[in-house]
Amino acid sequence: MTPPDSHPAPGANRRAGGPASQPPISTPGGVAGVTATMVGRDGALQQLLARLYELLDGGDAQLITILGDPGIGKTRLAFEFYQQLSRLPEPLRFYRFKADIQRIAQPYGMVRQMIAALFELDENDHHEATIARLERGVTAMLGEGRFEDAHILGFLAGLELDESPHLSGLRHNVRAIRDRAIQIAMQLIVRITAHAPMVLMIDDVQDVDDSSLDMIEHAAQISAGESLMIICLAQRRLIERRPRWGEGAPGAALIELQPLDEHQSRRLVGEILRKAGKLPPDLRNLIVSRAAGNPLYVEELIKMLVADGVIVPAPDKWQIQVGRLPRLRIPSTLTELLRARLQSLSRAERAYLAAASVSGSSFWAGAAAAMAGYDEPRSAAVEAILRALESSYALIVPQPEPALRGEREYRFSHDLMREVIYEQIAPEQRATYHRRMADWLIANSGDRADSYAGLIADHYERGGDLRYAGHWQARAAAQARAAYVLDTAITHYQHAIQLLAGYPEAAADLLVAYAELGQSQFEAARFADANASFRQTRELARQAGDRQAEARALERLAAIADDMSDLHAMLDYAQQALDLARAADDPTQIVMSMADMSMANLRLGDTQRGLDLAQEALVIAQQAGYGAGIAKCLGHIALTYEQLGDMATALRYTHEAVARFRELGDLTEMTMQINNLGYIANAQGDFASARAFLEEGLHVARETGIRNMEIYLLSNLGTSLVGMGSYVEAEEVVRRGIQICEQSRIKPFPDFYRDLSAVYLHQGRVIEAVEAAQRGLNLARDAVDPREVGVSWRALGAAMAELAEPLGAALCFVESARLLDTPGLIADRGRTLRAWAAHELRSGDPDRGRALQDQARALFVQAGLTHEIERTPDAL
Question: Is-contact 39 268, C-beta < 8 A?
């Protein structure tokens, strides 16, 4: 089936039962041309088919995970399931993928395979042809003009699209590209499954990269109403690695394959040896007892018996030489059995396989030849070895789509065979092979070497070259960070640091690794970890006499102190960074440090000093042509005018900052300025406009993964929702913000507990409201922010005013009014006087209450706060 377009849908040759150049699942090999029927897996097959029929009847999407030990029968079950699919009256789309270390040693490795398969992309085609094919496929499926969507998918698939005009606004925010790619993929799934169900089968899922696993789970979670079935074949290591795998998907199911019981094992032996007639009991018992329910062991043991002449195959009837059994030494384990099978190979064949096994479950023929010592990778000797290993011994299988241009790729027939071969290599020789493999990858991957950086690093480490391993781990980390897979980036950087730490000559690389680790942790909102990393960066820079690097580390420490509400530390770090930046004559760092000092002074109550610093930094940024610095300074100037009560000027500067950051493509800073628009609107009492700004900012922050910015947006959005009386939504927002703070190991913002107190008051939970307000006050005191402390005293007064004996409420309002009695905090002081007036009118001195209300209204009139004036009627 194809969608009703003028072009055929991509992947049309992958229909179950339809024509295909390569069968999605190869026929089981069997023994001497005899293939047994599947034994002991009928129940699992029926479970799969039942879930499939449920899907075909309009049920939800399915995520089925089939778990089992190596050799237990996962692949055979997959083959039988595919055979059933091919017999369905209506064809469906079927794709099979297999985790491959050559392709998944990079973020989104499996996702890249999926995109390439869906649009039939060939990594070895010319770049322009690949992009053109992708554009044609996407526009055929989703409509003309969807070139941006095509390029977003291409970027995630690893195509070189850095210069694409369609990605100009997203290039610096790969997290946004990832999330957009998920949305586009879902649109494609909806389009495809509207005309035919789709089945995706993924083998060796335990080896798939984390970023791809995340996307697979997410796709299953959000595809509830689509005709999509995802089948994952995995070893138990998957659950050890991800204990909650699939739990969030509505249609998730787990099928565990157990060893065959004795009856099933005897039946399997009979199936394979059916041409031998009635089997001698000793032979059947020998095979069954040694196999321990593992179908692969049964098959391999029979192959060994054939090779040793105990079983003699013939076209019509097989012969059993029972007399040879007593003299035969039978391996007690599957590993020993596979090792014994290898003895029949020639020395050259075993040496070639040993070299190939270093690469993993799949290998490039040229790489194995080079490591085995052959000068010519396609020599007659190498070709003879490959033919024998493939055809005579069935130990390797050619792969139709090699990852490297011009290289033939093979896969071991079973991962256990590869492991047995690898373990037989002497340690010294194994290390040599790994170093050679790393060198070969660098030499043969060209400008795609960074795509294999993690793999290259692993080979160097296994080869004992730890400095090179550290260098390539750092390159793998940089690639992961560029793809905004921050957890993976952090892991690579930490590993790089461990490897480089023992080499004094690698001090410069170690300094960069610590700095990049700190920035990755900062972007992931892991502030305590980032703080430790930048402290170490600073120390290494100081030891190296690198003033610029030390200034950058100090500026980052200032930014972290800001997020952790330690304003005095922020000011101190920023001042030290500024001194070093001036000594190094680094205008970029001078601007950043002065901007941090401006913000610290502003929050500590010295508004004029904050304005002076921001304006001075703006001039320096303009002289240096530092666009991001100009935009940042404009945003800081806006906040100082907000504190001075000049809302119109504050808004003008903030809108200009938003426009500049948008033009620069810096969505992180743009989101911060959108947050500031919401903050200013809240200060004006325009809660509806604030909510619109903040929800826009949250959308961008979540698309780009800016988790630390999400905290600020949620804190301001909670205030907007409370101001609008939307208490249910406010509570959800506040609790989400507190959760993120706790996960990020930072103190929750005082705003969250002030807003939570207001929610509790609305619910009539007065004691809890007082406790929440008190906690907000304690957090504000820790932050040493006069405005925050003053506003928190007001919240506590409002809560205490609802107690049966509200004796302390007035004292709270007095302290709040005192702290907010500055020119820049007119609006906040007016809100305190209004809340105090309400308390006096209800529970205290009505005359005093009317006077306080008049004072509050006068302040709102003075500040031109229309919304607050409307909320504050004239007491007279």
Answer: yes
